[in-house]
């Protein structure tokens, strides 16, 4: 069962890489910062997060953080609260850290990111 889920995530990563190429590059370049930010807000703080909030507390600009969150949303790792014209707000309870760890393994296997 676990192998099937991992293969599904691999397939999702390939689709996201094709459809969100630039955003995917932003994520791979800033993966460890985004992982730290998501863990900080969802696990440590239990607060919602936006790209602007991430840029205030971490060394990323808001557009880069937004691009990364878009990819993570496409991979169903984070989920935005609702559709609106305001900034997307991601809730801490809707973060899948296990899937984020699997994504890290896949990206390392594909040489998209280096070990840290």
Explain the layout of strands and helices:
Layout: H1 2-19, H2 21-29, H3 31-45, H4 51-57, H5 62-74, H6 97-109
Helix pairs in contact: 1-2, 1-6, 2-5, 4-5
Written account of the structure:
With 116 residues, the protein is an all-alpha fold. It has one domain: Orthogonal Bundle (Arc Repressor Mutant, subunit A), CATH 1.10.10. 65% of the residues lie in helices and 0% in strands. It contains six helices and no strands. The chain has helices at 2-19, 21-29, 31-45, 51-57, 62-74, 97-109. The longest helix has 18 residues, at 2-19. It is globular. The N and C termini lie far apart (29 Å). The model has no long low-confidence stretch (mean pLDDT 88).
The total domain count is 1
The biggest beta sheet is recorded as: none
User: What is the CATH topology?
Assistant: Arc Repressor Mutant, subunit A
Number of strands: 0
Low-confidence stretches: none
Helix-residue proportion: 55-70%
- Helix/strand structural class: mainly alpha
Q: Separation of termini?
A: 29 Å
Helical region count? 6
Strand content: under 5%
Compute the CA-based radius of gyration. Answer: 13 Å
Helix/strand order: HHHHHH
Averaged pLDDT:
88
Q: What's the shape? A: globular
The CATH class designation is Mainly Alpha
> In CATH terms, what is the architecture?
Orthogonal Bundle
